[in-house]
Automatic annotation (TrEMBL):
SUPFAM superfamilies: HD-domain/PDEase-like. Gene3D superfamilies: Hypothetical protein af1432. InterPro entries: HD/PDEase_dom (IPR003607), HD_domain (IPR006674), HDIG_dom (IPR006675), HDOD (IPR013976), RNase_Y/CdgJ (IPR052340). Residues 15-212 form the HDOD domain. This is HDOD domain-containing protein. The lineage of its organism: Bacteria, Pseudomonadati, Pseudomonadota, Gammaproteobacteria, Alteromonadales. It comes from the Bacteria. Transmembrane segments: none annotated. It holds the Pfam family HDOD. Residues 109-233 form the HD domain.
Amino acid sequence: MPIHHDQLIDMVDKIPTFQESVHRILALTTSPDCSAKDLVQVIEHDPILTIKVLKLVNSAYFGLSQEVTSVNHSVVYVGINTIKNVAISVATTGALPKTNKAGLNMNRFWEHSLAVGVIAKLLAEHKGVGKNEQANYFVAGLLHDIGKVLFAHFIPADYQQVLQKSEVEKIPLHLAEKQLLGFDHSEIGAMIAEKWQLPTDLISSIRGHHTAVEQEQTPLSLAIYAANQAAHYLELMAQAADNGDQYALSRATDIDNSLPADVKTWLGWPLSEVSKWLSNLDEEIDKALAFIDLSDGE
């Protein structure tokens, strides 16, 4: 059952690389001299990417008051950094396997990923992060668990046992992965992000969303750790409220009490208080559904 590091590398090698246009967008947007004109030219030479960018920019997520019909206007309205993150979202959701035989529920996977993305963005907004940079937080939350998909797709029989162990023993999935596989999904998630040459702080946030790596801590990685725990906290509190599940209430309290000191300091509040800021979470998640609809929108 334990897997070797070479097997992780083999799984990552089987995932397709991004199309050239996405690599060019990532390269362009890391330069302080990136111009909107250059970015528009790259997107417009990729018809599928153009369609998806326009579809997303016109979605309820951005809430623009008028329809945007050109890539040039998209960049003007939402900014270069947001377009970069749209390209990352399009490329990653398109490259990841859609199905698996392990029993990983992909609807629940994306629901949780969206929740973490939206919570991270709302936390960033609350912390005074600039609107243009908030897209980094959303996308990091959206992608934080991508390693689960690789495990479920490439080692379905083993991962089915991981899922069962987590459910039967009521332990977090990443701990069941560590115990049975020897690695957890954050490690292989960071490896695929490195293969895709995603931004360094995004890779760090994927790697550290369960075990905050001190030397890699940034506001983004702290936010993703906090957002992931907040999503689990809210889910458990909802279970406790719906059916009086005292075990769920106890686990939620444990999550709040066991936040690492650096995450607590960054948040400034316990999750029990943070959850009060998230009263519009369901509404924001509904708007963000456009991000995961893109892979089927060709």
